[in-house]
Structure formats: C-alpha cells, structure tokens
Automatic annotation (TrEMBL):
Domain Thymidylate synthase/dCMP hydroxymethylase residue range list: 62-294
Coiled coil region boundaries: none
UniProt EC number: 2.1.1.45
Keyword Ribosomal protein: no
Organism: Coccidioides posadasii RMSCC 3488
Designated name of the protein: thymidylate synthase
Protein's GO biological process: dTMP biosynthetic process; dTTP biosynthetic process; methylation
The keyword Transferase appears for this protein: yes
Active site: 152
Disordered: annotated span: 15-36
An example molecular function term from Gene Ontology annotations: thymidylate synthase activity
Pro residues bias (residue ranges): 19-31
Length: 294
C-alpha cells in the first residue's frame, strides 16, 4: 500500500531478518508522548495504511534483498552472470568513495581511483562550511545497469549552521572569545527515491544519523538535524500485520550515541571500528519480524 503523496508499492517476499546479537530486554509500553519524534514515522505509516493506493509490485512477485540480490539466480536474471555470488556491483560504498571509477569486481583495488566523495565532504566542512555544494550522491546513471539494485537512498546534502554556535561554551562560563571558539552544527538533508516503510526507512534513518555524527566528529562540528525527504514511500502487503502491531506500541526514549575516538577534527573518516561507538540507554520493544523485499 502507498500513501497518496508521491508514494507506492505492494507485495513482499522471503528473508526474515534476525539480529546478529541479542537485543536488550524488551521495554514496557511507556506513557503516550505526542511530542516524541518517532510519531512522525508512525503517523506516516497510519496515513499509508488508511488512505494508501494499492499498486502492483515492480516485478509482480517481489524478490529477496541483499542476500537474494547477490545470489547466483538473481545475478543471472539481471544479466550479471559474470559476477561472483555476493558481488552487488558499484553500489553505495563504491559510489561514495570511488565515484566515476571503472568497476571491475568486489575484489579489485580501487585506491586512488574515482572521486572520494566522503573525503570531499569532510574537506568542505572543514575548509568552507558555508559551501552549498557539500553533496554525497550514490546515483550514477552510468553505473545503474551494473548494480544488483539501484540506490534507494541516493542523495544527501550537508549544511553547517553557526547560529548560537558558541552557546555551549557560554553556558559553561568559559567563552571569553566567542568568535574564535564558535563550532558549527552539522545538518543532513537526505533524499530517498524508494522507501520501504516497514524495514528500510527505520534503518536508513539510523544509518544517516550515524553518518552525520561521524562526519561531525571528523570535522569538529556538533551533530544537528536529519531531514528525510521521501519519494515513493510504500508499505508491502505482508508488512501490514507487523506494522499494525508496531502502531500499538509507544516509542521509548531515544538512546544516546557516544563516539569514543580521540581524533575529533582530524578529518579522518577511515578506520572506524565497532568499538568506536557506544549506544547508551537503548531500550527497544520486543522484536517484530518482517520480510525484506525490493
């Protein structure tokens, strides 16, 4: 089902997701808080379920995502029979770090080839934060036919605001020279062409929020706001029951993300490891299983 604001899609298939590590104990349903930001997501789901337009799936049957898109059967079906199983082609990470390079396979060394958009974003954030061209794009028309799946989240623009940037220091009584101590706030505007409201969108929100934190760390900025613009926002038919269950639950308090790296402001976006991140106060509800599709 889809909302009547430029959104669509139906059916889903295969591959229920399972967590790679145990979740914390499920949280009880908290009291209703209409100001909780997660209600923006939940209310859009309500709108789609209530007023959405039924549309046929792109393939009529649905396909597995990621594991299925890298399978021998799927790669052969889209004309990528020369690819090894699991090789998705020049998708997100390749475009972010090697835009314009000629893609060979997942094992090739692309060091120094193409445009490293991540490095360019950090450089501009540090050297010219008012630049209106701080862009990260995964949409490369020349490479679309080489991809197992064209990018869904495809374009992000980063914007630095220095409005009230010195307030944290001033509140602590340590700001003797506000002009020299100002630190900007990094905001991210994400455009997503195709939005699986059940599974994809929550992951995309979390992943771009994380990316914004990482970029802010590298450029010595405060992480700010994530603005998510959706094109085709859809609910797959076999997600409806699970989402109706989710709508009965009140959002819990958002956790805090803490970055433990000591190289703030270094401009380095390489070498990140799991231990560099600490999530504090994560209190999820009991897991709801849904199947993934494209």
């Amino acid at each position: 089902m889809a909302s009547n604001t430029p959104v669509d899609h139906v059916q889903a298939l295969q591959a229920p997701t399972t967590p790679s590590a145990p979740f914390p104990s499920p949280s009880p349903n908290p009291a209703h808080d209409p100001t909780h930001e997660e209600h923006q997501y939940l209310n859009l789901i309500r709108t789609i379920l209530a007023t959405g337009e039924h549309r046929p799936d792109r393939t009529g049957t649905g396909v597995k995502i990621w594991d299925g898109n890298g399978s021998r059967e799927f790669l052969d079906s889209v004309g990528l029979s020369h690819r090894e199983v699991g090789d998705l082609g020049p998708v997100y990470g390749f475009q972010w770090r090697h835009f314009g390079a000629e893609y060979v396979d997942a094992k090739a060394d692309y060091s120094g080839k193409g445009v490293d958009q991540i490095a360019e974003v950090v450089r501009k954030l540090k050297e010219n934060p008012y630049d209106r061209r701080i862009i990260l794009s995964a949409w490369n028309p020349a490479d679309l036919k080489k991809m197992a799946l064209p990018p869904c989240h495809m374009f992000a623009q980063f914007y630095v605001s220095f409005c009230n940037a010195a307030l944290p220091e001033m509140e602590n009584g340590t700001n003797e020279d506000a002009d020299k101590k100002q630190k900007g706030t990094l905001n991210c505007l994400l455009y997503q062409r195709s939005c699986d409201m059940g599974l994809g969108v929550p992951f995309n929100i979390a992943s771009y929020a994380l990316l914004t934190h990482m970029l802010a760390h590298a450029a010595d900025l405060y992480p700010g706001t994530l603005i998510h613009t959706m094109g085709d926002a859809h609910v797959y038919l076999d997600h409806i029951a699970a989402l109706q269950e989710q709508l009965t639950r009140e959002p819990t308090t958002f956790p805090e993300l803490r970055i433990n790296r000591t190289d703030r402001g270094s401009g380095d976006m390489d070498g990140w490891a799991e231990g560099d991140f600490e999530v504090i106060g994560y209190k999820p509800h009991k897991m709801i299983k849904m199947k993934m599709s494209v």
